[in-house]
Amino acid sequence: MSDKTITLSLMDPPYDSETTTTALRIAEAALDKGISVNVFAYEGAVMLTMKAQQAHPNPVKGTTVEDQHHPTTAGFVGALFEKAAGDVQFQWINCGLCADERGANDAVPGPVRGSPKEFVEWINGSDQTLVIPAK
Hints:
This protein has helices spanning 18-32, 65-68, 73-83, 96-102, 116-124; strands spanning 5-10, 36-41, 90-95, 112-114, 128-132. By secondary structure, it is an alpha/beta fold. The radius of gyration is 15 Å and the shape is globular.
């Protein structure tokens, strides 16, 4: 395991706020620097990992899905799991109660179901914790 670990808590659902994209970029930058990353998705953020997300065209611009290259948050999360290798770990927990109330239980491979209890355990074992609240 790497010498350093950061823990992030996200609450916003996909595409409602720039903060989720920023948090995913922070996670990517940490992994690039050899820092392990834990992400606890709470409330609407459990939707960030849902497998059913689809890229879309942009009819206003007249572009196709292929032209648009619109990334999904689920694809971004999946790529973070692939990026973590060797001693650098990437872990993601979706709050189980939050997922149940949203019907969000079909995530891309990697995220697991958990509770705030695991978030507290991660906080206690991390060098830094960043909580990104909803508005």
